[in-house]
Write a structure and sequence with these properties.
The complex is a heterodimer of chains A (143) and B (142). With 143 residues, chain A is mainly α. Chain A has six helices and no strands. Chain A is globular. Chain B has 142 residues and is mostly helical. Chain B is built from six helices and no strands. Classes of the chains: A mainly alpha (143), B mainly alpha (142). The interface between A and B is large, with 119 and 112 residues.
Chain lengths: 143, 142
């Protein structure tokens, strides 16, 4: 049931990406291009997504537990550290270069374009590199 | 403004929010796409590979489903060069793992939880994205 929940959530998420236009790199770049022909559509997407999630989380997190698990798994970290800032800055730079972020890039694979495949392969390498570095620094701390 | 799409873009956002709420209601987890993907990668510490793959399957199925309903609903792919695509992919992948999230985990779920970490990350990546587009379109690319 958990896997089915993930699938349905991914499906809804993906339909949202297509309808909103987030799946289109041109649309994303037009949204980020304040000095050009700015297209504010995706600001509405973000506002709607955050509002629905805000209200939905209020209701859901009032429960003792989720339906298919014993407990909620919320991020515990609250520290705004240099890793967060540098990571977000690198992420935003890559996002602005091409207009793909992880969700839309994966969903866009369905259209079979070489561009999204190249992007996703590079993204996986970048993710693995960051995980490897994190594992290294963790074991260095333990030593 | 070439193609302002207030209705479909708002509706899409509602669905993205609904997906995040559904995942929290059923599994108690944040719908952060970079986390869902990166935890499938080595070095391994993954407890739920099947679930994460199911989410990605849903993401991939969505455009196909919509194309089946409406054949012309495809989005043009990026026109960036392979070098640009590889650079951007590396930055997005590395940055999202280092920063602990992406547009969905920080930008949607984190903001909705009023997390200071996510507000900071979202502000930083939005500014970096705006700056990058400004430089590449108006200073360099012109």
């Amino acid at each position: 049931m958990r896997a089915l929940s993930y699938f349905v959530s991914g499906l809804l998420f993906g339909v949202g990406l297509v309808l909103s236009g987030l799946i289109s790199p041109a649309k994303v770049l037009a949204f980020l291009d304040l000095a050009g022909h700015w297209d504010p559509s995706l600001a509405l997407t973000l506002a709607a997504a955050v509002s629905v999630t805000f209200l939905g989380y209020k209701l859901v997190l009032g429960r003792a537990a989720p339906i298919f698990d014993h407990t909620f798994h919320l991020p515990q970290s609250t520290s705004v550290d240099i890793k967060l800032i540098i990571g977000a800055a690198l992420f935003g730079t890559g996002w602005g270069l091409v207009g793909y972020c992880p969700g839309p890039a994966v969903a866009a694979l369905a259209y079979g374009s070489a561009a999204s495949m190249i992007f996703v392969c590079a993204m996986l390498v970048g993710m693995a590199a960051a995980r490897f570095l994190a594992a290294c620094s963790l074991s260095a701390v333990r030593k | 403004m070439d193609q302002f799409t207030p209705i479909s873009s708002t509706l899409g956002g509602v669905l993205i929010g609904a997906a995040a709420v559904l995942l929290m209601l059923t599994t108690g987890r944040i719908a952060g796409v970079s986390g869902i993907i990166s935890r499938l990668l080595p070095p391994h510490a993954d407890d739920q590979p099947l679930e994460r793959l199911a989410f990605l399957g849903g993401l991939l199925a969505a455009p196909l489903l919509l194309m089946a309903v409406e054949p012309f609903r495809t989005a043009a792919a990026s026109t960036g060069s392979p070098v640009l695509l590889v650079s951007a992919g590396l930055l997005v992948g590395f940055g999202s793992v280092l920063g602990g999230g992406c547009t969905s985990g920080h930008g949607v779920c984190g903001l909705a939880r009023l997390s200071v970490r996510s507000m900071t990350a979202t502000a930083v990546f939005m500014l970096a994205g705006l700056f990058t587009v400004y430089v590449s379109r108006h200073l360099v690319g012109g």
